[in-house]
Amino acid sequence: MNIAILLYEGFTALDATGPFDVFSRLPGGQVTFVSSAGGLVRADASALEIGTRPLSAAPRPDVVVVPGGTFTNRHLGDEQLLGWLRTAHASATWTTSVCTGALLLGAAGLLDGRRATTHWYELESLRVFGAEPVSERVVRDGDVVTAAGVSAGIDMALWVLEQIAGAEHSRAVHLVMEYDPDPPQPTGSVGRAPPELVTAMHEEMRRSYGPTWAELSAKAEA
């Protein structure tokens, strides 16, 4: 079972390393980080770099994982990445994304007519790609599984692991990882956080991340 995790400059670390930790515990599984040119790829937290192999090293993976990142929007016109995604998806059992990685799936034409999720800041941007935005932590539509922001990639990977290796193995990995979130504040989703915090963080993300892809697309069409 070959799992390919697609990296690009400016990916978010946990988007990639969370699923990696889960899939690395798949018996007989082989996880490969890939990127356009191979070599070291820098995360949006620039102190972290991950070594990758070129896209040609994983032409037909069984599972595709596309993390999100602060600079995902910069790669939505990268035909090398998008072409690899289309080809890999055609033969993969599962094509998955975490956070704004869903925008790359959308740009590759893989979300048209599908239910999907992504980070709450970009959720409505999924409509640009013909997808139906769903405010859930993990959304499965056929052979495509999308996860909400950052930490939701662990939930997604555990779900896919269960489909591949069975519920017993997935439960065991869940326990070994001691993945049992108990945050100090119940503010980890838009639905649970106070409205004033959601508004404040939306404005903060707009300053640091920039306009959403939906806003950029609407401006380009105006």
UniProtKB/TrEMBL annotation:
CDD domains: GATase1_PfpI_2. Residues 2-163 form the DJ-1/PfpI domain. InterPro entries: Class_I_gatase-like, DJ-1/PfpI, INH-QAR. SUPFAM superfamilies: Class I glutamine amidotransferase-like. It holds the Pfam family DJ-1_PfpI. One of its GO terms (biological process) is regulation of DNA-templated transcription. This is ThiJ/PfpI domain protein. It comes from Conexibacter woesei (strain DSM 14684 / CCUG 47730 / CIP 108061 / JCM 11494 / NBRC 100937 / ID131577).
